[in-house]
Amino acid sequence: MEYIDVQHLSFFYDDEPVLQDITFQVHEGEFVILTGENGAAKSTLLKSILGLLKPQEGFATISKVNARGEKLTIGYAPQQISSFNIGFPSKVLEFVESGRYQKGKWFKKLDDEDHTHVQKALESVGMWEMRNKKIGELSGGQKQRIALARIFATDPDLFVLDEPTTGMDKESRERFYQLLKHNSKVHNKAIIMVTHEHEDIKGYVDTHIQLVRKEDSPWRCFSMDLCKEPSKHQH
Ligand SMILES: Nc1ncnc2c1ncn2[C@@H]1O[C@H](COP(=O)(O)OP(=O)(O)OP(=O)(O)O)[C@@H](O)[C@H]1O
Prior knowledge:
By secondary structure, the chain is α/β, with parallel strands linked by helices. It has helices spanning 42-50, 92-101, 112-124, 140-154, 170-185, 198-201, and strands spanning 2-13, 16-27, 31-35, 57-62, 74-77, 158-162, 190-194, 207-213, 222-228. It has a 6-stranded mixed sheet with strand order 5-6-7-3-8-9, sandwiched between helices. Strands 2-1-4 form a 3-stranded antiparallel sheet, with helices on one face. Strand 8 and strand 9 (222-228) form a beta hairpin. Helix 2 (92-101) crosses helix 3 (112-124), helix 2 packs parallel to helix 4 and helix 3 packs antiparallel against helix 4.
């Protein structure tokens, strides 16, 4: 089932085109990466998909329902997610738990399933041991990780991630890619992720969309190259 549909999308900032004629789909269970040089309008494309920016030509839509016919849920990690400022909740564990309350449990206590989700999410980003720390005491990279853990805890159908591994070492990145692959292949989640690490991640993904500069364009305008990556590793 198609979760994202982008058709002939072009985007201009003022009169300058930055994206031209972008067409692709993302399906349930598919892990897609989006790459391109700095300024290739990767973030612009993600924001257009999310409806935060409106393309001047073409369209980008997200399905309203998931493959089970329920309301489709989205987990979005913008760039520099770690610069967020949180006054409350103040502890790592509470912050990630608050992601579970988003699942409509405002008046209920979290149950065992919720706690398992929260623990797994924190473990997956290597932050379980730091669960009782105050958020104000964390480094920028650690804040980035707990923000990702909160997204995992919300258990969305569609992950939209803008350079989530910035500041992670190689080992953490590998663990993170494995987790994403597991989510797409075992839990049927759809993932679109902007990254500069496309050599490292190759074996985990299904589809690689590269934004390439248009040679005949007087501006820094990008169109796309798409290739399906046969997954090399089984994780
Ligand atoms: N609000 C804006 N107004 C005008 N131009 C903008 C605006 N936001 C971005 N741009 C320009 O549009 C182009 C694409 O920006 P965008 O942030 O989408 O690229 P990116 O591929 O995500 O970049 P990076 O890899 O450096 O994060 C850049 O040339 C940028 O300077």
